[in-house]
Design a protein that fits this description.
Layout lengths: L1 H7 L18 E2 L8 E2 H4 L13 E3 L7 H6 L11 E3 L6 H23 L3 H7 L1 H10 L3 E5 L3 E4 L7 H6 L4 E4 L4 E8 L2 E4 L5 E3 L5 E5 L4 H42 L24 E4 L12 E4 L12 H7 L11 H13 L76
Antiparallel strand pairs: 1-2, 3-4, 5-8, 5-11, 6-7, 6-10, 8-9, 9-10, 12-13
Helix pairs in contact: 1-4
């Protein structure tokens, strides 16, 4: 019913009598309501072809006064009325009827396409046809040099070649031949025309096969080669399967636990036992059992130096904090020799004792030890008077000199 209704509707323009098209020539509706006009024709007309109504809207000008006309020169041109084109929309109802009619005619075209041969559909696809042509050696070849065509395969036995020596023809230069396959220097011609022994410079492929029989023979040869490749892959899979089955039989003969016992956390201690580490400092001037050898026990504070006994340290290092200023060079030399004879402070720390997992400390005391002195001469701390104070901006570490300071102050306890 819809198809019969669509057939009675004139889907063409009443001006140019061209059929409507949904994109290039759609039907339009004029401002007056008349339709069946295509888009190109609406651009060429100014009035409706039926009622002669204008397709433009004129803008009315404001009436001018005499005073304004007096200022205008008589030579000034008179302005024409501006014309504004009215909107001309598409006829959506007529376009929907066109789509319905096209849909009604579509099934018959699909039935006709289904009746075509599959091989013709395969040929109509240019991409598939081009890929097949490029991937195979079948095609049209150009002869660059004169070649001999024999009726037997040159790869066969010599006896067969000698028996067929008389059956041969010659291909002339610039001829074109249909070749089914070309591999290993042997080209097989279509329709069993013979074999040609040549190289790629003597026979050059210039296009797809022209002969239908040559193309079908080429497709058949391609399928045979693919079947041979699949057969080889299948044979390799069978060998691999048999090898894996044999290895599985050997593996099943041995016994191995399938389920293992659960692991407890007690068998894997994460925190080692904390042991006290005793470190001993030895100086170059001390021996075993002497008072210059100090030992201490590591604690969580990780002291950098051991706590010296008060009696020994106070007597040994007491001279470092006092200076005798008025004794002269002789007393200075004696004091220097006396300081060099004192035991030196320990310069090495204990070795690395591992990581304490309870506190997270590694036991390394390199960061807590101060920088080593580059000078071999021990530095002497001297007591200075208030009159010798130089202030905060000018404060600098006092350097030792052989001349005594101005003050002659001497600690009475340091006198011998």
């Amino acid at each position: 019913m819809a198809a019969e209704t669509a057939k009675r509707i004139p889907f063409h323009c009443v001006i140019c009598f061209e059929a409507f098209h949904l994109k290039d020539r759609p039907p339009m509706v004029l401002p007056c309501g008349h339709t069946f006009v295509c888009l190109p024709c609406t651009k060429r007309i100014d009035k409706c072809m039926e009622c002669r109504e204008s397709l433009y809207k004129s803008s009315h000008s404001i009436p001018s006064s005499r005073a304004f006309d007096a200022f205008m020169s008589p030579q000034s041109p008179v302005r024409a009325h501006a014309l504004t084109p009215l909107p001309i929309p598409k006829n959506l109802v007529l376009m929907s009827l066109m789509e319905a009619a096209e849909f009604q005619l579509r099934p018959s075209a699909e039935d006709n396409a289904a009746m075509e041969d599959d091989e013709e559909l395969y040929e109509s696809h240019p991409m598939i046809h081009g890929i097949t042509t490029l991937s195979s050696s079948c095609g049209t070849y150009h002869v660059k040099e004169p070649l001999t065509v024999v009726s037997w395969d040159p790869r066969s036995t010599k006896n067969e070649m000698n028996s067929r020596e008389g059956d041969s023809t010659v291909l002339m230069e610039r001829q074109k031949v249909q070749v089914v396959e070309f591999e290993k220097g042997i080209a097989r011609l279509a329709r069993n025309a013979g074999f040609v022994e040549a190289n790629v410079s003597q026979l050059v492929k210039v296009g797809t096969p022209v002969d239908e029989a040559c193309r079908l023979e080429g497709l058949l040869k391609t399928l045979q080669n693919r079947s041979a490749d699949l057969q080889r892959e299948l044979e390799a899979n069978r060998k691999l399967e048999s090898n894996l089955s044999h290895r599985l039989e050997v593996a099943l003969e041995t016994t191995a636990p399938i389920f293992t016992e659960p692991v407890t956390f007690d068998s894997y201690p994460t925190t080692p036992e904390q042991h006290s580490v005793h470190s001993v400092f030895n100086t170059p001037y001390s021996s075993s059992g002497s008072s210059a050898t100090y030992s201490f026990e590591e604690t969580s504070t990780r002291q950098a130096f051991p706590d010296c006994q008060k009696d020994n340290c106070e007597q040994n290092y007491r001279h470092l904090f006092y200076y005798k200023g008025s004794e002269g060079d002789e007393n200075m030399d004696n004091r220097t020799k006396r300081m060099q004879s004192l035991p030196r402070m320990p310069s090495q720390v204990s070795t690395f004792g591992g990581i304490d997992f309870r506190t997270g400390l590694s036991g390394h005391r390199g960061l807590s030890v101060g920088p080593r002195s580059t000078s071999n001469t021990p530095r002497v701390r001297m007591r200075m008077m208030m009159s010798q104070h130089r202030g905060i901006p000018n404060s600098r570490p006092y350097r030792r000199s052989f001349n005594p300071p101005p003050s002659s102050f001497t600690d009475p306890s340091m006198k011998e």
